[in-house]
Write a structure and sequence with these properties.
Largest sheet: 7 strands, antiparallel
CATH class of the largest domain: Alpha Beta
CATH architecture of the largest domain: 2-Layer Sandwich
Number of strands: 19
Number of helices: 7
Oligomer: single chain
Radius of gyration: 20 Å
Number of domains: 2
Strand content: 25-35%
Shape: globular
Distance between the termini: 39 Å
């Protein structure tokens, strides 16, 4: 079960974060959790494992939500969202929230206007139709991580060469950030999240990843391009990451189309809308909006792109 928690805050004066607001919201999460379960908060904070929660950055509530990167110039209603993949963690967080009337941000207390809780069973996503063409809007900066694998038999680090055909020796420290919407990284990340936190098996992971590595899913367009952002956690320490935003169109190639895997693709993307994708999920990175596309929509988009002559 995925537990979703929304908190609306009244920001009654101008504020300016020293970094991307998502980092402050992650800090707020640990602050809230510490009030009811300090041991769990400390354990989560120190853990190197995949995080059992994700967050939004601070969002301005208007006709639609607007991501606040660092500054609010005048009073407004804002929203914070947390998606939690662990029941005990959710119960501890709720235990703290129910006794609070304000929350602290950058040294000030702000009034809680509303708290909303939802529960979603991700296994119901598999009931949707299989997908062939789809778009993903990366709402907040998104990046993926790639690291070499350690072979326990030969005691060396290995990586895939650019052709994805064989493994070659790698520098053990060759840890890379990838600020690109590469399908293999997107779906590997989502499948890893599912396998770690959802008890209902979705697919044979090895077979699905083999299908993915064969190039079954490709990028088919960037309607308005993508933008990369350098996002600071600590400017004084020069600590930052680069992520991308924008809408990307994807296709499953006809020669690789498999209805079972097409349903898995659809399910994982619906799951990702709730959990975020890629690195930094707990700090509001990797928020996405998924949209299946019918053939007429794909053809119309392609025609518009050719007319406009837009390039990346």
């Amino acid at each position: 079960m995925i537990h979703i928690l929304f908190i609306d805050l009244l920001i009654d004066k101008p504020i300016k974060f020293q970094q991307y607001s998502g980092f402050a919201i992650r800090g707020l999460f640990y602050n809230i959790l510490t009030k009811s379960n300090k041991e769990l908060a400390d354990e989560l904070h120190a853990s190197k494992k995949i995080a059992p929660f994700s967050s939004t950055p601070l969002l301005k509530v208007n006709n639609k939500f607007h991501v606040i990167y660092s500054t609010i110039n005048k009073p407004c209603i804002t929203r914070i969202g947390f998606s939690i993949l662990n029941d005990d963690l959710f119960l501890s967080l709720i235990q703290s929230i129910k006794d609070l009337s304000t929350l602290p941000l950058i040294g000030s207390e702000f009034l809680i206007k509303m708290v909303e809780v939802k529960e979603v069973d991700p296994s119901t996503f598999y009931s949707y139709e299989p997908v062939k063409e789809f778009s993903v809007t990366f709402i907040t900066p998104t990046y993926f991580r790639s690291s070499p694998k350690f072979c326990k038999v030969c005691r060396v680090y290995l990586r895939k060469d650019p052709s994805f055909r064989k493994l070659v020796l790698a520098n053990h420290s060759a840890y890379k950030f990838i600020p690109l919407p590469q399908p293999e990284h997107l779906f590997r990340n989502l499948l890893k999240l599912w396998c770690n936190f959802i008890n209902k098996p979705l697919v044979n992971p090895i077979k699905f990843l083999d299908w993915l590595d064969e190039g079954a899913i490709v990028i088919s367009g960037f309607p308005k391009g993508i933008i990369t952002h350098r996002v600071y956690e600590h400017k004084t320490m020069n600590k930052w990451v680069v992520g991308f935003t924008g809408t990307v169109h994807f296709s499953i190639l006809s020669e690789y189309y498999d209805k079972r895997y097409a349903k898995v693709v659809d399910t994982l993307l619906r799951f990702g809308e709730l959990t975020n994708v890629g690195g930094g999920r707990s700090a509001g990175f990797g928020m996405i909006k998924y949209q299946p596309m019918v053939e007429s929509e794909v053809n119309d988009v392609t025609f518009k792109e050719r007319r406009s002559g837009e390039e990346i």
